[in-house]
Amino acid sequence: MGKTNLSLLIYKFLVKENIILSYIGLFDNKLVTSILNSVKEKNLFDKSLVSKRVYSILVESLENVIKHSDDLESNSFLFVYKYSSHYCIVTGNRISNDSISEFKNQLNNIKKSSELELKNLYKQQIFSDRLRDNCAGLGMFDIALKSRNKFDFKFISINEEFSIYMLQIRIDIL
Amino acid sequence: MNALIIKQTIDTPSIVLDPINRIFIISGESRPENPREFFKPVLDWLLAYENTLYYLKNEGGKTIELNFTFKLDYFNSATAKYILDILLIIKKFQNNGYIYNILWYYDERDDDMLNSGQEFQSMTLLNFIFRTLV
């Protein structure tokens, strides 16, 4: 029973911090589907446009975690916070240091773009994905457009080979 | 030509491509685990349907007007590419003299779904008719 006090502390902490959804572990498509179903069944988000937007950004963030994890055997995490003015989705997953530089450039480019520029970049990307029969590049544009570009990212080095890629997205309640 | 009917699942949409009754509807939620595998039969069916359309136009001698309906609650970014693929095949039909309307349904509170439709309209220049879900 040595862990009951610690567990209670963690529980209280999650409640105090307005965390309505948390998961730590291996992410795969099956898990993503089960998280999304529980979100829908429990009406975890308010029934409104915001809820659809949060849902849609949640899908893209979870798919991003699966896509960018260099190693699906390592733990990734998801936290969803709910405040009176906004939701906040935070994901984290391990990424190889070799892929950071290009990825960082791509994220910075998206972040500094206006809505119109984002829409144009989205169009370029969807046509180039089409030619390459690839459908990997659109998720981050979708997140940026739907969150009105309110996202942040961080790479935290673990060792010479790997880092943790963290993505934080804010969705305002209108 | 046979109809292509795919039942809706928890992460894939319902597909109805019925050449006899001329019903073409994609509805539900779309975030397939393997989008290419899911949408390939749809794209193949549409490409094959062009022969049927050709026959109808040349044998029947009438202008054919068809509606293709999208009634999606949600689709992920990977699905967007395949929606564009579908629309570009329809665009080809249109260029060959068949009239196609795209009926794009959206929840009236869901600006994002309306915006997506408008973006597809601007990318394909097809005739989109926007309708709110009742």
Strand fraction band of chain A? 15-25%
- How much β-strand is present in the residues of chain B? 25-35%
Helix content of chain A: 40-55%
> Mean pLDDT of chain B, nearest integer?
91
Secondary structure class of chain A reads: alpha+beta
How many helix segments of chain A? Answer: 6
Distance between the termini of chain B: 33 Å
The coarse overall form of chain A would be globular
The stretches of 5 or more residues of chain B where confidence is low (pLDDT under 50) are none
What's the shape of chain B? globular
CA gyration radius of chain A, whole angstroms: 17 Å
* Major sheet strand order of chain B: 1-2-3-4-5-6
Short description:
The complex is a heterodimer of chains A (about 170) and B (about 130). Chain A is α+β, with helices and mostly antiparallel strands. Helix content of chain A is about 50%, strand content about 25%.
Annotation keywords:
heterodimer, A: 174 residues, five-stranded antiparallel β-sheet, B: 134 residues, alpha/beta, six-stranded mixed β-sheet, 3 helices, 44% helix, globular
Task: Please characterize this protein's 3D structure.
The complex is a heterodimer of chains A (174) and B (134). Chain A is of the alpha+beta class and 174 residues long. In chain A, 48% of the residues lie in helices and 25% in strands. In chain A, strands 1-2-3-5-4 form a five-stranded antiparallel beta sheet. In chain A, helix 2 packs antiparallel against helix 3 and helix 3 packs antiparallel against helix 6. The longest helix of chain A has 20 residues, at 49-68. Chain A is globular, with a radius of gyration of 17 Å. Chain A starts with a helix and ends with a strand. With 134 residues, chain B is an alpha/beta fold. Chain B contains three helices and six strands. Chain B has helices spanning 35-60, 77-95, 111-124, and strands at 4-6, 14-18, 23-30, 65-75, 99-106, 127-132. Chain B has a six-stranded mixed beta sheet with strand order 1-2-3-4-5-6, with helices on one face. In chain B, helix 1 (35-60) runs parallel beside helix 2 (77-95). The termini of chain B are far apart. The chains are: A alpha+beta (174), B alpha/beta (134).
